[in-house]
């Protein structure tokens, strides 16, 4: 059943230092022209993940590609669709009604201006990038993880848990 | 006059990630993890590496306490700039230079450091490390500079003096080891952290300051203008060069030798504001006489370059023989510490080349214990030398910084190879200026205009 589940990027708040490298890399990956230097960037950085920084926590938040995606259900013009293992927004059909923004439990959707039109925007898992999500690659502390196959992730955790159990048995029983 | 202390962290944008503290070579960035960081200005050597690594920016999705307009004005940046602004930044001099250019009351002379011509084009979307001396010269003329001179010429001049000084120290039992003095952050570091080694620093001024004192003396006389009418601007890959230009020692011409320093990034703003289409500019040359340079002058911009340039001249001074291979490959490469030995017959001249200020500390500590196994040491504060300076184009991605250093380095050596003359002492304009104006290297006039002496600064 796992192979049908959507992929997503998750962040580890214990590792994140709040440097915003992930956001910068996201904006560069989604830029229409190839940009290397800050001086050659003439628009604001519009990332699709958002660093949350409060006195208690510092970690970026982004789309979880929910299985029963409320954004998809709430879109009145069917501009949000499931495509492969991700939920995508079709910017050309989006009317900027903000329904998806209201229902997203993660606050992972923002409004941006594309060709003078305001549309909804969210993480697309860098669909056009062969190396996978740019944010994951850019994090200097490896705080971000691309979960493409949650089944494999689960099985790794279970193996680790089993090893710990074996250690406990050896030590104490 | 208060000295330049223009490396700052914007508290409204800083997220306290302390990436800057990790690259600061002098531990000048103070603050708790997650809290706002403050730069201890007494410790700061103004290398600007914090600016290059900072990734906390003015997000449009967040409400900031300070308006963009206010932020630009605090940084002395013009309002037309639309690029994202980051927390770590330097205070610029662009507005000042622009006003003088507009006033048309001054005779404008400009010099450009070797590392600027291999990075400037990146700000216009050209490939990393594009070599553009000709377009840069053309752009500077269109902006309104009357004389487009070159720091590379002054780098050749520095080699004449510095190689002579080394030869003299070696032959006359002068103080050794001798340290290079062209990196102003390194000089400030010695003054504040290791004042006992001040006399080990070469008394030569940096190429920027040598050019500055030549502009308002010889340069002014070439054009028949009064020195006070000359406004001297330096385009530098370095934020600390602003500090150096304002030092009180730097008035050999009787005036402030360099009136203003612009970083590579600031020059790009100036070109954009003048609506110049950089990539379609023609290739032009630098003006004579203070803009003619050898390959040795052009490699000053990379770690090991000063050493290589010095060897090309010092070897011939010491041996009286021609150096068969001008490519001193042992001085090249990205390693933070390189050691090389040059056999001159008279002695085996041992040199250490250090890139990254942190890496010099163990060497100086050994030296304190009296353990010097070398005669000459080159130190550059930035990780790959001036090509990686704090005033160079800032990369959005860390991986691109590494690529950029590599590409810029290749271009520096390519430019050296392109030059018909590769040794500073063979530069005809250098020979001419000694004959007409300066006399001998280390002579009276050269000493007055091209050398200085540093003093200890309050320790921190």
Describe the structure.
The complex is a heterodimer of chains A (173) and B (460). Chain A has 5 helices and 8 strands. In chain A, 27% of the residues lie in helices and 20% in strands. Chain A is α+β, with helices and mostly antiparallel strands and 173 residues long. Chain A has helices spanning 21-29, 70-74, 99-103, 134-138, 150-172; strands spanning 8-11, 50-53, 58-61, 80-83, 86-89, 110-114, 117-121, 144-147. Chain A is globular, with a radius of gyration of 19 Å. In chain A, the strands form 4 sheets. Chain A has a two-stranded antiparallel sheet with strand order 1-8. Chain A has a two-stranded antiparallel ribbon with strand order 2-3. The longest helix of chain A is centred in the last third of the chain and has 23 residues, at 150-172. Chain A has 2 domains: 1-62 and 123-173, Alpha-Beta Plaits (2-Layer Sandwich), CATH 3.30.70; 66-122, Alpha-Beta Plaits. Chain B is an alpha/beta fold and 460 residues long. Chain B folds into 2 domains: 1-91, Alpha-Beta Plaits (2-Layer Sandwich), CATH 3.30.70; 148-455, Fe-only Hydrogenase (Larger Subunit), Chain L, domain 3 (3-Layer(aba) Sandwich), CATH 3.40.950. Chain B is 37% helix and 11% strand. Chain B is built from 16 helices and 12 strands. Chain B has helices spanning 19-23, 49-53, 68-74, 94-103, 133-143, 151-171, 184-193, 207-223, 240-245, 264-273, 295-298, 305-319, 361-368, 398-418, 428-438, 444-450, and strands at residues 7-9, 29-30, 38-39, 88-90, 107-112, 147-148, 178-179, 230-236, 260-263, 337-343, 348-355, 376-380. A 4-stranded parallel β-sheet of chain B has the order 6-5-8-9, sandwiched between helices. Chain B has a 4-stranded mixed β-sheet with strand order 7-12-11-10, with helices on one face. Chain B has a two-stranded antiparallel sheet with strand order 1-4. In chain B, helix 13 links the parallel strand 11 (348-355) and strand 12. In chain B, helix 6 (151-171) packs across helix 8. Chain B is globular and about 70 Å long. The chains are: A alpha+beta (173), B alpha/beta (460). The interface between A and B is medium-sized, with 32 and 34 residues.
């Amino acid at each position: 059943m796992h192979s049908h589940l959507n992929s997503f990027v998750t962040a580890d708040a214990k590792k994140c230092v709040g440097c915003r490298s992930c956001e910068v890399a996201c904006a560069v990956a989604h830029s229409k022209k190839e940009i290397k230097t800050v001086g050659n960037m003439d628009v604001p950085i519009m990332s699709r993940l958002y660093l949350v920084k409060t006195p208690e926590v510092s970690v970026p938040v982004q789309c979880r590609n929910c299985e029963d995606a409320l954004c998809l259900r709430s879109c009145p013009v069917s501009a949000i669709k499931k495509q492969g293992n991700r939920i995508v927004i079709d910017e050309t059909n989006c009317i900027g009604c903000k329904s998806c923004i209201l229902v997203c439990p993660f606050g992972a959707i923002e409004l941006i201006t594309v060709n003078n039109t305001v549309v909804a925007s969210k993480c697309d898992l860098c669909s056009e990038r062969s190396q996978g999500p740019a944010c994951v690659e850019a994090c200097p502390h490896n705080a971000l993880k691309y979960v493409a196959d949650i089944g494999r992730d689960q099985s790794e955790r279970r193996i680790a848990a089993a090893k710990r159990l074996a250690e406990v048995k050896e030590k104490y029983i | 006059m208060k000295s330049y202390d223009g490396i700052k962290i914007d508290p409204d944008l800083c997220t306290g990630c302390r990436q800057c503290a990790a690259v600061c070579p002098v531990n000048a960035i103070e603050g708790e993890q997650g809290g706002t960081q403050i730069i201890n200005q007494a410790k700061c050597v103004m290398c600007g590496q914090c600016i290059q690594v900072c990734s906390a920016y003015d997000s449009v999705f967040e409400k900031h306490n300070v308006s963009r307009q206010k932020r630009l004005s605090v940084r002395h940046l013009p309002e037309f700039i639309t690029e994202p602004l980051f927390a770590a930044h330097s205070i610029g001099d662009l507005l000042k230079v622009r006003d003088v250019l507009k006033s048309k009351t001054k005779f404008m002379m400009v010099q450009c450091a070797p590392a600027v011509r291999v990075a400037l084009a990146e700000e216009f979307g050209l490939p990393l490390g594009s070599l553009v001396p000709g377009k840069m010269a053309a752009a500077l003329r269109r902006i309104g500079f009357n004389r487009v001179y070159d720091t590379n010429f002054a780098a050749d001049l520095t080699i004449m003096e510095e190689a002579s000084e080394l030869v003299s120290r070696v032959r006359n039992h002068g103080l050794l080891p001798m340290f290079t003095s062209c990196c102003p952050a390194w000089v400030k570091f010695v003054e504040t952290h290791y004042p006992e080694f001040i006399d080990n620093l070469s008394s030569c001024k940096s190429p920027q300051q040598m050019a500055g004192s030549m502009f308002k003396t010889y340069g002014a006389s070439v054009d028949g203008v009064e020195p006070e009418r000359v406004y001297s601007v330096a385009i530098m890959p370095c934020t600390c060069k602003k500090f150096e230009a304002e030092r009180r020692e730097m008035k050999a011409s009787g005036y402030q030798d360099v009136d203003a320093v612009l970083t590579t990034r600031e020059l790009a703003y100036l070109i954009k504001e003048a609506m110049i289409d950089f990539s379609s500019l023609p290739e032009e040359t630098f003006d004579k006489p203070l803009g003619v340079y050898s390959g040795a002058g052009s490699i000053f911009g990379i770690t090991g370059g000063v050493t290589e340039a010095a060897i090309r001249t010092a070897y011939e001074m010491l041996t009286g023989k021609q150096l068969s291979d001008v490519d001193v490959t042992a001085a090249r490469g990205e390693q933070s510490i390189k050691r090389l030995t040059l056999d001159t017959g008279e002695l085996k001249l041992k040199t250490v080349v250090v890139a990254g200020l942190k890496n010099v500390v163990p060497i100086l500590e050994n030296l304190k214990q009296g353990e010097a196994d070398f005669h000459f040491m080159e130190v550059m504060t930035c990780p790959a030398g001036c090509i990686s300076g704090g005033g160079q184009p800032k990369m959005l991605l860390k991986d691109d910084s590494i690529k950029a250093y590599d590409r810029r380095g290749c271009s520096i050596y390519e430019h050296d190879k392109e030059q018909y003359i590769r040794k500073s002492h063979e530069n005809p304009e250098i020979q001419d200026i000694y004959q007409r104006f300066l006399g001998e290297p280390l002579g009276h006039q050269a000493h007055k205009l091209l050398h200085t002496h540093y003093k200890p600064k309050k320790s921190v």
